[in-house]
Amino acid sequence: MIEDIENEIEVINSIYGEGTLERVADVALQSYHLAIPQKAVTLRLSIPTQYPNAGMQITAVDSVGSATRKGYGTRVLEVAREVLQESFTPGQVCIFDLLQDLEQRLAQDFIADDSEDQEVSQCNISRETDAPIETTTPPQWTVSATVTEKKSVFVARSCAIKSTSEAQAAITHLLSMDKRASKATHNINAYRIRTLVNGHDVTYQDCDDDGEDAAGGRLLKLLQIMDVWNLLVVVSRWYGGVKLGPARFGIINAVARDAIVAAGFAKQSEPQR
C-alpha cells in the first residue's frame, strides 16, 4: 500500500538521515534508491504498490563510492538479496529489518573484531555494570519540542552521563520527580557511554522499549548513526487512543534528534551513509 511505503520512508530517513530511502526521479513509481549506511553503496529497489502484501525486489547496484574496493558493490547486492529472501513476510514492512540484518551480515564478512574494544549493545540484557556513583546533583535535561499526532503526544529529553549507574539514576529521578513523565504510556530510552578502564577503551550501550515494541532499538540506532557518546535520551509518549503504525518510530526519532541537537551533542555534519 502507498501509505505503508510512505511511512517506511519517513521512519528510515528519520533514523539514518534524509535520502537514505527515496523514490527514483523520472522513473516508474515503484523504483527507489536505498543508500546502505556507511557502506558507500546505493541499491535500487522495485517496490510494488501492493507492498507489503506483495514482495519487493532488489534489482541492481545504482552507485558505488570511488574509494570502494572492486567487487564490493556486487557482494553487497548478493547479501542484500539473501537477507531480503530470509526476512520478508507478506503483510509486514521489511526495509528497516533489511538494513539492520544487512549491516550485521556485512560486518561478519568484512570487519575484524577489535579485542581491545569491548562493547555491550543489546537491549535489556543482564550484565555487569560499573560501580554506582553517589550523587545529589539532579540530571540536567535538555527537552525537545513537543509533537502531537492523532492525540498522541511525544517529547524527548537528553542529558550527559558518565556511567550506566548515572543513566539509571537519571531515569529514576525523572520518573519520581516529573509527574507528567511518570504517567506517560511509554518512556523509551537509550544511552551510549565510552570510558577508559585500565587504559583500555570500553563502551557500554543499552536501550529499553518500555512497552513500545522495537522503539528502544531504533532509538539506540539513532545514537549510533549520529555517533553520540556519554548521553542518555528518554522519549515519552502519551498514547492518544489512535494507532499510528510505523509512523510513530519516525516521530520518536525526530523528537530524540531534536533533544540531541539542542544539547549540543550532534556532529557538525550529518553522518555519512
Characteristics of this structure?
273 residues, alpha+beta, seven-stranded mixed β-sheet, four-stranded antiparallel β-sheet, 7 helices, disordered C terminus
Short description:
This protein is an alpha+beta fold and 273 residues long. It has seven helices and eleven strands.
Distance between the termini: 27 Å
Q: Which structural category do the helix and sheet elements fall into?
A: alpha+beta
Overall shape:
globular
Q: Can you tell me the residue ranges where pLDDT is under 50 for at least 5 consecutive residues? A: 111-122, 124-135, 268-273
Rg of Cα set: 20 Å
Question: Strand count, sense and closure of the main sheet?
Answer: 7 strands, mixed
Can you put this structure into words, describing what you see?
The chain is an alpha+beta fold and 273 residues long. Helices cover 34% and strands 25% of the residues. It has seven helices and eleven strands. The protein has helices at 2-16, 72-87, 95-110, 164-177, 179-182, 215-225, 247-262, and strands at 21-23, 31-36, 41-46, 57-64, 118-120, 142-143, 147-149, 152-160, 186-197, 200-208, 231-238. The strands form two sheets. Strands 5, 6, 7, 8, 9, 10 and 11 form a seven-stranded mixed beta sheet that branches. A hairpin with a 7-residue loop joins strand 1 (21-23) and strand 2 (31-36). The protein starts with a helix and ends in an 11-residue tail after the last helix.
